[in-house]
Design goal:
Aspartate Aminotransferase, domain 1; about 15% strand; alpha/beta; Aspartate Aminotransferase, domain 2; 4-stranded antiparallel β-sheet; about 450 residues; 2 domains; 7-stranded mixed β-sheet
């Protein structure tokens, strides 16, 4: 772990000093607070991909040196992934494109195994951990409190209500809207108490806090884990699904094709063993190289160090934002149990205009809208059902939403100060900004 790396973490990340244009044509160093969507790459990741490029080859079954080398790297990387999240040897590591594909793959696998099961989801899930379950299962939702945090009592209430029919509890490790971290080990205990398994969507947690799937005999064991490399400083399109090998041995894969079989004739198929069975087509070796290097870099820095540093950024941001007039921060009262995400609005200012003004006036990148979690945002904003129905009839109407700040390990307090100053100016000059950026609303 780096002992004196405060302020120098920026040296590890590509593009942090890139210049971006403002609306007046001036160039400034951009500030990126949109890390929950995707993170920029580590320098080490880009170097690892470049170093591997001369040895890139199609893996498995090739007899040439490059193919053998690439195959060994690809297969050995699974152990690095297991170690990073504390997955035991009974688990298989399946490479996919992203978290969305991982959850869809698991939803297909469950549909082949269970009759009339119930999936218990939550009100705070990303669409990717909600929609894949709806067409195959009866889905119920654990409720949230007024701050947007999960109500554990409601989880047990619903587990009891369905009388053993809940086969899976699926929950985000940290919300991509509010940043709230869920007590995944307590939820695992509850799920196992009622003979259900647990899936944790770790897309927003993986680069910001330690994850341990724990031994399979533990009541706090995480049965399935999914995450994306592009949210942990490793682009190139790789995601991960981890679960018990035995659960992927039976049944057909959702995608069929090259690499998924042992023997095939025109009237018979014998499928390959996991994980190859679920990795159809030519694998994304470059993406796996990037993921493995990102894990190595995060381990070198120390995930506990990252968590502590980002908690300091979160605290500093709250202190700087709280005095701004008319700022409405979601979950303002609880900044201790979240990763570095802060959703907010400025009263009487559309979220689209606030976000556009930050980019055009100060080169500050944020994200606005519902962040692929519309039911959660609708509930956080207390949007009446009649308004939701009205927008469903007329999708061209502006959608309710929020502005979201999300930190990476390379962000600094100086950047936060610049953000606070610009938001203060926007809030104190609403009429001017509303007039200047009205076109943003008209173009929606």
């Amino acid at each position: 772990m780096y002992n004196n790396f405060y302020g120098n973490l920026r040296d590890l990340v590509v593009g942090v000093n890139a210049r971006v244009p403002l609306s007046n044509g001036q160039l400034v160093t951009g500030i990126n607070f949109d890390n929950a969507a995707t993170t920029p790459p580590f320098v080490s990741v880009m170097q690892a991909v470049t170093n591997f490029a001369p040895w890139y080859s199609s893996i498995h079954r090739g007899t040439g040196y490059k193919s053998q080398y690439a195959s060994d790297l690809y297969e050995n990387s699974r152990e690095a992934v297991r170690a990073f999240v504390g997955a035991g040897p009974e688990n298989t590591v399946i490479y996919v494109k992203n978290t969305s594909e991982a959850i869809n793959k698991l939803s297909f696998r469950f549909s082949n195994r269970c009759k009339h099961p119930v999936v218990l989801s939550t009100f705070m899930e990303h669409h990717s951990n909600d929609l894949p379950w709806r067409d195959k299962y009866y889905v119920d939702y654990i409720d949230i409190d007024g701050q947007g945090r999960l109500i554990l009592e409601d989880a047990e209430k619903k587990l009891r209500k369905h009388r053993g029919r809940v086969k899976l509890v699926t929950v985000t490790g940290a919300s991509n809207v509010t940043g709230f971290k869920n007590p995944i080990y307590e939820i695992a205990r509850l799920a196992h108490k009622y003979d259900a398994k647990i899936l944790v969507d770790a897309a927003q947690l993986i680069a910001h806090a330690a994850i341990d799937m724990r031994p399979s005999g533990s009541p706090e064991h995480i049965d399935y884990l999914v995450f994306s490399a592009h949210k942990m400083y490793a682009p190139f399109g790789t995601g991960v699904l981890i679960g018990p090998t035995a659960d992927f041995e039976k049944g057909e894969p959702d995608y069929k094709g090259g690499g998924t079989i042992r023997i095939v004739t025109h009237d018979h198929v014998k499928w390959a063993a996991p994980p190859q069975k679920d990795e159809a087509g030519t694998p994304n070796v470059m993406g796996v190289v990037a993921l493995q290097e990102a894990i190595k870099t995060i381990n070198t820095i120390g995930i506990e160090y990252i968590e502590k540093y980002e908690a300091g950024l979160l605290e500093h941001t709250m202190l700087r934002l709280n005095p701004i007039p008319d700022i409405e921060i979601i979950g303002r009262e609880d900044c201790c149990h979240r990763v570095g995400i802060i959703p907010f609005n400025i009263a009487d200012m559309p979220h689209q205009i606030t976000a556009s003004a930050l980019a055009a006036e100060a080169g500050i990148s944020v994200r606005n809208g519902c962040f692929c979690a519309q039911p959660y945002v609708q509930k956080l904003l207390s949007v009446p059902r009649r308004e939701i129905r009205r927008r469903m009839r007329n999708p061209s109407l502006p959608h309710p939403g929020l502005v979201r700040l999300s930190f990476g390990l390379y962000n600094t307090r100086d950047e936060i100060d610049a953000l606070a100053a610009q938001l203060n100016h926007i809030s104190r000059n609403k009429e001017a900004y509303l007039k200047k950026y009205q076109y943003v609303m008209e173009s929606e």
